[in-house]
Amino acid sequence: MTLTPSQIAWLMTAVTFLALLLLCVGILQYFRQSARRREIVAKIRLGGESSGLLYGSDDVESGGGALGIGVAAFLRALGRRVMPGRSADFSKVRVKFLKAGIRRESFTALFWGAKILLAALLPLMFLLFRFTLIKVLSPQWTLVSEVIAALTGYYLPDILLKVRTDSRKEKIQKALPDALDLMVVCVQAGMGLDAAINRVAQEIKLTSPDLSDELALLNLELRAGKARQDALRNMAVRTDLDAVNSLVTLLIQTDRFGTSITSALKVFADGFRNERFQRAEELAAKMPVKLIFPLIFFIFPALFVIIAAPAFIKIYQNIILR
What we know:
The chain is mainly α. The protein has two domains: 5-169, no CATH class; 172-287. 82% of the residues lie in helices and 0% in strands. It has twelve helices and no strands. Helix 5 (107-132) packs antiparallel against helix 6. The radius of gyration is 27 Å and the shape is flat. The two termini are 33 Å apart. The model is unreliable at 57-64 (pLDDT under 50).
């Protein structure tokens, strides 16, 4: 089968775009892994204490050494010129960062700088490939590809931020039942709610750093003098989980009406565990339906070839060749 020049051009465009996308993802993953290694080393040196609680981790700044710091400074300088001012849009972006576990205020400028840089860099790289490798592409399709590359570069940081937020929410969701059980044990042992929150934050630091940071930040707000209701609502906004919202509502109502915190937490923990068990049963019930398409397109054809191929070979030898 011979490919036409237009098909070759489309194939080269798709391969080039995929290579650029994988290159950007690989660079970001390298910075994240470098930052994670540095964070682990810092925790070991500090005896397990988290050094980035108040401001979170800045992956680009902490990874890559001097090169990462220089890139981060350039992106911040570029982002300050284009990011929105102290308006409602700025507050919404800050809330998105808090939901992703990023509390460093300078990350807003860095984020906008990355959006602008990628929106300009990807079209330039594609244009370079266009005049060096993909010379058969028409001007109209070149313009369309340039627009697609610019839009991809502009929205790529938002996609990565959304992926990080979803991953963090999933980790907190999985660690919440164990944290609730520990909190129930602490309250039953005679601790107050603030002391129980601080103790749970210390105990789950290794198994769930994200939830530990949220509880530790909640404890810091309480120690700083903020009202318990406001501190709990702030934690609900940062985590953006229905389970945490329900827990915050329960604690606020318990504190307001003076009911037993131990009984309320115990009932909520049992209900949350039952809800998680029902969610697992629901996923297990959906599994046979999801397995239909892999069975039809991948497993059944292989089984058909293995079972029916000898019979077809015998028929071909006995009937057609004679």
